[in-house]
């Protein structure tokens, strides 16, 4: 079975995280995800994520940490290894290039969306680790 490594960004701003709805032109249209994309040959996961967010949302991000990866099989031939990174908005004006909508959600709102299957364990992990992540964000903001 082919394993496809994919990164995703948990982009935080004002104690909320950015969630993106897949457009009709994408696979799994209408489902929600954390934005990101496939790692290209010779590319680090971090470089991939920075590139993908620039391409998909026209913003730059700063990566400050990561959460546990998750594997999900959407078919019998391919497994997605989703690698989540904790990020903050660096610069730029948000522009939807691939997604049809984005929302900034607080912890208690996360479970209200219809998430893509591969993202559900990431949502659960994020929910459990929310307070620790907020502490990391405070520390990052203090140092930068």
Automatic annotation (TrEMBL):
- Oxidoreductase recorded as keyword: no
MF term (GO), any: 8-oxo-7,8-dihydroguanosine triphosphate pyrophosphatase activity
CDD domains in the cross-refs: NUDIX_MutT_NudA_like (cd03425)
Enzyme nomenclature, EC number? 3.6.1.55
Q: What Pfam families would the database entry show? A: NUDIX
Q: What biological processes does GO assign it?
A: DNA repair; DNA replication
> Which reaction equation describes what this protein catalyses?
8-oxo-GTP + H2O = 8-oxo-GMP + diphosphate + H(+); 8-oxo-dGTP + H2O = 8-oxo-dGMP + diphosphate + H(+)
Q: Which cofactors does this gene product need?
A: Mg(2+)
What range(s) does the Nudix hydrolase domain occupy?
1-128
Give the source's domain of life in one word: Bacteria
Q: Give the record's family classification.
A: Belongs to the Nudix hydrolase family.
- Its protein name is 8-oxo-dGTP diphosphatase
Task: Name the source organism.
Answer: Algoriphagus aquimarinus
């Amino acid at each position: 079975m082919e394993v496809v490594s994919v990164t995703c960004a948990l982009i935080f701003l004002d104690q909320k995280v950015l969630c993106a709805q897949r457009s009709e032109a994408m696979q799994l249209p209408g489902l929600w995800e954390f934005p990101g994309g496939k790692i290209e040959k010779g590319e680090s996961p971090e470089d991939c994520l920075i590139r993908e967010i620039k391409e998909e949302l026209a913003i730059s991000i700063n990566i400050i940490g990561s959460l546990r990866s998750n594997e999900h099989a959407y078919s019998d031939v391919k497994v997605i290894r989703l690698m989540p990174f904790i990020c903050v908005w660096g610069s730029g004006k948000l522009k939807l290039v691939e997604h049809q909508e984005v929302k900034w959600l607080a912890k208690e709102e996360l479970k209200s969306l219809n998430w893509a299957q591969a993202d559900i364990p990431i949502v659960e992990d994020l929910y459990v680790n929310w307070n620790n992540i907020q502490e990391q964000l405070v520390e990052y903001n203090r140092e930068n």
